[in-house]
Design a protein that fits this description.
It holds the Pfam family YkuD. GO terms for molecular function: glycosyltransferase activity; peptidoglycan L,D-transpeptidase activity. This is L,D-transpeptidase family protein. Belongs to the YkuD family. The protein has a single domain, classed as L,D-transpeptidase catalytic domain-like. Helix content is about 20%, strand content about 30%. The strands form two sheets. A ten-stranded mixed β-sheet has the order 1-2-5-4-3-12-7-8-9-11, with helices on one face. It has a two-stranded parallel ribbon with strand order 6-10.
């Protein structure tokens, strides 16, 4: 590559990066158990698009609100100053998608999984499972309720990180385990969740 071409390429890259309106968010501290169990889940090639970034808030919602954009496959945690933390997610495929407004009524670390009756009917091989690296709920789960009624939908980690950015779940919002730990640490019970 000629020097003039290299200089042009570097200048173009610098200009492109200068226009970015986001910055990365450091990983949260994790416990020894979290680190050991997450290490047992096969790593996936990470798409930079699905990383954890501070971005300009595209939602217009109040700070502290979680907004899931199912079309773009991002979850936003709205911050002060018209900013948001954006996480890549996997969402429900078209047949199982869910939208609405709910609240976080329960939080759990490495939760047990008890598949709902509808899922058992579709996939008779699924069985309840204790929390751990093989469990499809991953490292954390945030249980979504409408009023006092459990929607049966969750924001949770995953043992299939390669599917982040896809529409593949049965309606739940899946996150990389390190991302769901970060979100879990930042939100409280009764946090408003909007799934669009």
């Amino acid at each position: 590559m000629r020097l003039s071409s290299l200089v042009f390429l570097m200048a173009t890259m610098a200009a492109a990066l200068a226009g970015c309106t986001y910055k990365g968010v450091p990983d949260p501290q994790v416990s020894t158990r979290d680190a050991e169990w997450m290490a047992q889940i096969p790593a996936a090639q990470e798409e930079p698009r699905n990383g954890r970034y501070i971005v300009d808030d595209p939602t217009g919602e109040a700070p502290g609100t979680i907004v899931v954009d199912t079309k773009q496959r991002f979850l936003y945690l709205v911050q002060e100053g018209k900013k948001a933390i954006r996480y890549g997610v996997a969402v429900g495929d078209e047949a199982y998608g869910w939208a609405g407004t709910s609240r976080i009524a329960r939080k759990a670390e490495w939760p047990n999984w008890n598949p709902p009756a509808e899922m058992k009917a579709r996939w008779p091989h699924v069985r309840p499972m204790n929390g751990g690296p093989a469990n499809p709920l991953g490292a954390r789960a945030l249980y979504l309720y409408e009023g006092n009624r459990d929607t049966l939908y969750r924001i949770h980690g995953t043992n299939e990180p390669e599917k982040i950015g896809q529409a593949v779940s049965s309606g739940c919002i899946r996150m990389r385990n390190i991302d769901v730990i970060d979100l879990y640490n930042r939100v409280a019970l009764n946090t408003k969740v909007i799934v669009r």
